[in-house]
């Protein structure tokens, strides 16, 4: 009972002291040594920004991080020259696949006709000189016929020229007949060459022209 009375008295005394202390003027509290002067607290507050500045200096300039060699090695940072390599990051995006425009060509026939045979399909790879389709053209048929006729005419004209040349040397025929035969043979050779050039313009090769029947 006595202990409880002492505790209650101490609590009441402490409360009274607190009330009394708050009512004591500031100068009196300074004289009693119960309050720390503001000037004494300023150095501690001023020391705080210095510690922050030191922390900033330890991290280096703004935008840069100072690291030791051990930290660089532990982080897996590697310095290397710029070059080609494999990307470790993959991205999935929608795309459209198509053939290379540099490896495509549109082939237009030099003449009209009926398609008799198609030997390649869309998307097939072809080589230069390979036959893609076979056309049946009336124009080609007429050109071949003209070439064959010109060839026979030229051959006959050469035969007549050889005969007239022999007779003229033997003084059997007149020179005029020899000159006429020579002009006819020359004209036949020109027509044969024109017919051959027409076949070449239509796309026939030299071997195909040479293989035509005479």
Structural key phrases:
2 strands, mainly alpha, elongated, two-stranded antiparallel sheet, 214 residues
Account of the protein in words:
The chain is mainly α. Among the domains are: 2-52, no CATH class; 114-121 and 131-210. 57% of the residues lie in helices and 4% in strands. The protein is built from seven helices and two strands; from the N terminus they run H-H-H-H-E-E-H-H-H. The protein has helices at 2-23, 26-32, 38-58, 69-75, 138-169, 175-201, 206-210; strands at 114-118, 133-136. It has a two-stranded antiparallel ribbon. The longest helix has 32 residues, at 138-169. The protein is elongated. The N and C termini lie far apart (151 Å). The model is unreliable at 1-24, 34-49 and 53-58 (pLDDT under 50).
- Rg estimate, integer Å: 57 Å
Distance between the termini: 151 Å
Uncertain stretches? 1-24, 34-49, 53-58
Rough outline: elongated
- Share of residues in helices: 55-70%
Largest sheet: 2 strands, antiparallel
GO molecular function: transition metal ion binding
Region (Disordered): 43-62
GO biological process, one term: copper ion export
Domain CzcB-like alpha-helical hairpin: 142-201
What is this entry, summarized?
The chain is mainly alpha-helical and 214 residues long. Helix 5 (138-169) packs antiparallel against helix 6.
